[in-house]
């Protein structure tokens, strides 16, 4: 048998908020790098010959960034010296991320690491990630664009799984533009620790009052021998094709582990005894990929999304996630309004970007969040995590305010004439609804605006004199005047409000429209079209029918005659579905034994029951329906539909009061849409648009996905856009506990299965927030389009979520 090699890469896994306070973990990693500098200095000076060969890889650039901000010039000089010497390596990933992060922010963070290593003039082109179970397809493109040619994935199959149905193998990950990244589809990020190479490892359980004795070291080394030889024997039994195997190793078996050069003592001992059979080499990340690329290997190429099994953490914190989503929209709007960065404050933008990145980092709470939800530390770290979203929103809001002020936005002022500027921030022309809010103390044409006494207002284009169709509603922000306005790409238009006195409409006096009890329940007849009622609405674009016991019963695209609802739907659109899995063991064990299912085999499922349907507002632009449901697990579940008459659009708002529950639970919102028998389902994630179940790496997750702005159902000519504003998770297929389908040619059928929005879950047994209770409001929008590509349809979802901007404006 030929000589074999075990390549070890020593790193410290960053898990920000899992083992300690977020800011404390930052300090840990700064001190870890400082200690590595001391270790390497001692080695170089000959003080520690037994540690010769020790090397350390910074798992991500964030660690380096924290060190550079909290170290002396001398320490920084020493760090860069050892980086250039090849004893310290830098992975060019920024952090271990969820797919929640925005594409622009992700690219900016990759650029930080690239600039730094380029400044050192070193050949660094590799990244590693640990723990997480997937990446958006756009992540591969982002890496490629920043010179990251190699990715070492050290995933954790706890409630997840590696792609390709097999780990410890290389593959080329091809991006949607044809670039390729070499991936080592690796094992757990502390596999090397299983070999007990670190003296007095906590896995050996050989602590004694006298410390780590020579006898104890010999006993542990026997275990090391047994495990390493057994590991290579297992590889041979599984027909592992290579004479080398890489493994990651930490100083101790914990996240955020300190570096430990004493592993070199055991490595030298091993190589003296067994190096002719199996040699152990401690290498850096980039060294491993240099070696790998020199091998004559047949490496397969795969393209597609690598859906993250750990994306569902965002569903355990729906409130801060909604705040985060709002911050992302403001971030994109700010960049569209100020692409050159001349109007806002760069320091606010940078602060927002950092907090956006930190909230999207993969850690979703302290490790005992489920076992001890009352614990002060659990709640302390939960609020700190939420603070990233809150602070990001605050910073980007201030930045956007600066931009809008430069564009002419006026603050509150007395006796201001009712002029407004409407801005299309998008790169395409739009015909959309803009909104103006008038407070109770504000005037229109020198009169206070009260619909009861002063009639209505109209919206006038100051350039052309055109009157835009409008409608008034009462809201918590004041009188809401919504109007339809066409705008060219990035166009700005000034409008004003003008008061109009209207006469009472008495057109039903001599006709069979309505009885003396004022109930309009007569069906359409010749000469009379009853198009709006509690039973639905019909416009030029769609026909919506409401069933009085279930909710939305049918939705027809009148332009094509196609039904927009899935033929095998189990629930009405937006009629909530609640699940709870009874605890038969304990709160943590019950969740652990679910495996890759996000529910137990005995999950109790309840569907919302419709109790009332109301038409709460009907006007020239839109009609508002309120569907009141009863749903187990909630005190309130109300669906508000705003069906537009002048656009092929329906806005949906869910209002939920959620109960507290310690047991594992899920809340789903059915999105059982389709566009006929040839319908294809496309979704948008960070930097990519793809078809779930089809355009994915083999062996990846097909049960759920974390989206950016939404999805679309299209037959290639016509499409239904579903903009998902606040709740990024969706799940695909049956809600029943089931054997999990990993992506393969057979899973293409899942692309045609039912879709559910998944706003809430508390599934994970360690660090998910267990308490989902509270009041929530979630928004969705449906929009019909024709002759648009999937990318253009998805772009519409982005435009719907971001909207157009209206600011108070005083013409100069």
- Main sheet properties: 9 strands, antiparallel
Based on CA atoms alone, the radius of gyration comes out at 30 Å
Average per-residue pLDDT, rounded, comes to 94
Number of helices: 14
Percentage of residues in DSSP E strands: 25-35%
Oligomer: single chain
Query: CATH top level of the largest domain?
Result: Alpha Beta
Helix/strand structural class: alpha+beta
Fourth-level CATH superfamily of the largest domain: Glycoside hydrolase 38, N terminal domain
Describe the strand arrangement of the main beta sheet, using strand numbers.
27-28-29-30-39-36-35-32-33
What name does CATH use for the topology of the largest domain?
Answer: 7-stranded beta/alpha barrel
Shape descriptor: elongated
Number of strands: 40
Domain count, please report it. 4
What's the end-to-end separation, in Å?
Answer: 86 Å
Level-2 CATH architecture of the largest domain: Alpha-Beta Barrel
Share of helix, binned = 25-40%
Uncertain stretches: 204-209
Please provide a written account of the structure:
With 812 residues, the chain is of the alpha+beta class. The protein folds into 4 domains: 300 residues, Glycoside hydrolase 38, N terminal domain (7-stranded beta/alpha barrel); 89 residues, no CATH class; 82 residues, Sandwich (Immunoglobulin-like), CATH 2.60.40.1180; 270 residues, Beta-galactosidase, Chain A, domain 5. Helix content is 25%, strand content 28%. A 9-stranded antiparallel sheet has the order 27-28-29-30-39-36-35-32-33. A 6-stranded antiparallel sheet has the order 26-25-31-38-37-34, with no helix packed on it. Strands 4-5-7-6-10 form a 5-stranded mixed sheet, sandwiched between helices. A hairpin with a 2-residue loop joins strand 17 and strand 18. Helix 1 crosses helix 2 and helix 10 packs antiparallel against helix 11. The longest helix has 31 residues. The protein is elongated. The protein starts with a strand and ends with a strand. About 1% of the residues have low confidence.
């Amino acid at each position: 048998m030929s000589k074999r090699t075990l390549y070890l890469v020593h790193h410290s896994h960053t898990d920000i908020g899992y083992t300690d306070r977020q800011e404390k973990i930052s300090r840990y990693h700064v001190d870890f790098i400082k200690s590595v500098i001391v270790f390497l200095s001692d080695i170089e000076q000959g003080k520690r010959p037994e540690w010769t060969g020790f090397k350390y890889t910074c798992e991500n650039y964030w660690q380096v960034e924290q060190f550079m901000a909290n170290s002396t010039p001398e320490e920084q000089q020493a760090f860069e010296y050892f980086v250039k010497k090849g004893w310290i390596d830098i992975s060019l990933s920024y952090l271990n991320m969820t797919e929640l992060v925005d594409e622009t922010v992700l690219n900016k963070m990759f650029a930080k690491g690239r600039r730094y290593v380029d400044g050192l003039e070193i050949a660094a082109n590799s990244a590693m990630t640990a723990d997480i179970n997937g990446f958006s397809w756009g992540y591969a493109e982002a890496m490629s664009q920043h010179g990251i040619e190699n990715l070492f994935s050290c995933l954790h199959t706890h409630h997840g799984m590696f792609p390709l149905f097999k780990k410890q193998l290389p593959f080329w990950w091809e991006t949607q533009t044809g670039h390729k990244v070499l991936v080592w589809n690796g094992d757990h990020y502390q596999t090397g620790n299983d070999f007990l190479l670190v003296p007095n490892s906590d896995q050996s359980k050989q602590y004694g009052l006298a410390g780590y004795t020579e006898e104890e070291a010999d006993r542990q080394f026997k275990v090391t021998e047994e495990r390493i030889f057994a590991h290579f024997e297992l590889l041979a039994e599984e027909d592992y094709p290579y004479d080398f195997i890489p493994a990651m190793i930490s100083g101790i078996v914990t996240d955020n582990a300190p570096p430990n050069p004493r592993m070199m003592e055991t490595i030298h001992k091993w190589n003296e005894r067994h190096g002719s059979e199996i040699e152990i080499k401690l290498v850096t990340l980039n060294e491993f990929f240099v070696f790998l690329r020199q091998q004559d290997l047949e490496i397969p190429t795969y393209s597609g999304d690598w859906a993250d099994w750990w994306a569902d953490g965002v569903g355990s914190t729906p409130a801060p996630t909604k705040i985060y989503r709002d911050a992302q929209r403001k971030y994109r709007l700010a960049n569209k309004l100020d692409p050159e960065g001349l109007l806002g404050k760069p320091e606010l933008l940078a602060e927002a970007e950092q907090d956006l990145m930190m909230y999207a980092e993969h850690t979703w709470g302290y490790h005992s969040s489920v076992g001890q939800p009352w614990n002060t530390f659990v709640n302390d770290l939960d609020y700190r995590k939420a603070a990233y979203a809150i602070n990001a929103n605050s910073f980007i809001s201030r930045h956007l305010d600066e931009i809008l002020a430069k564009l002419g936005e006026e603050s509150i002022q007395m006796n201001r004439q009712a002029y407004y500027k409407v801005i299309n921030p998008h790169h395409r022309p739009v015909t959309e609804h803009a909104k103006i809010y008038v407070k109770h103390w504000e005037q229109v044409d020198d009169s206070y605006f009260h619909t009861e006494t002063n009639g209505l207002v109209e919206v006038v284009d100051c350039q052309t004199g055109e009157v835009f169709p409008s409608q008034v509603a009462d809201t918590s922000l004041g009188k809401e005047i919504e109007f339809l306005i066409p705008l060219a790409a990035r166009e700005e238009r000034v409008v004003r409000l003008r008061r109009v006195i209207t006469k009472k409409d008495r057109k039903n006096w001599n006709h069979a429209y309505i009885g003396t009890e004022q109930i309009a329940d007569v069906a359409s007849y010749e000469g009379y079209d009853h198009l709006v009622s509690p039973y639905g609405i019909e416009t030029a674009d769609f026909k919506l029918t409401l069933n009085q016991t279930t909710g939305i019963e049918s939705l027809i695209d009148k332009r094509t005659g196609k039904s927009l609802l899935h033929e095998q739907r189990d629930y009405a659109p937006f009629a909530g579905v609640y699940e709870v899995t009874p605890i038969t063991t304990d709160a943590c064990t019950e969740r652990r034994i679910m495996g890759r299912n996000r529910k137990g085999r005995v999950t109790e499922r309840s569907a919302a029951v419709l109790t009332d349907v109301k038409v709460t507002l009907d006007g020239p632009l839109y009609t508002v329906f309120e569907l009141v449901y009863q749903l187990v697990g909630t005190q309130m579940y109300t669906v508000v539909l705003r069906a537009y008459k002048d656009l092929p659009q329906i806005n949906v708002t869910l209002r939920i009061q959620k109960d507290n529950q310690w047991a594992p639970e899920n809340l789903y919102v059915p999105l059982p849409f389709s566009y006929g028998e040839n319908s294809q389902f496309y979704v948008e994630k960070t930097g990519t648009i793809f078809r779930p179940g089809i355009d994915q790496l083999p062996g990846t997750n097909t049960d759920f996905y974390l989206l950016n702005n939404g999805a679309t159902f299209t037959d290639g000519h016509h499409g239904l856009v579903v903009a998902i504003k606040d709740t990024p998770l969706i799940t695909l297929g049956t809600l029943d506990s089931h054997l999990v389908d990993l992506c393969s040619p057979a899973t293409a059928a899942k692309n045609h299965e039912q879709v559910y929005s998944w706003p809430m879950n508390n599934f994970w047994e360690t660090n998910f927030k267990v308490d989902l209770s509270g009041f929530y409001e979630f928004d969705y929008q449906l929009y019909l389009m024709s002759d648009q590509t999937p990318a253009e349809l998805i772009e519409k979802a982005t435009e719907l979520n971001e909207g157009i901007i209206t600011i108070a404006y005083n013409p100069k």
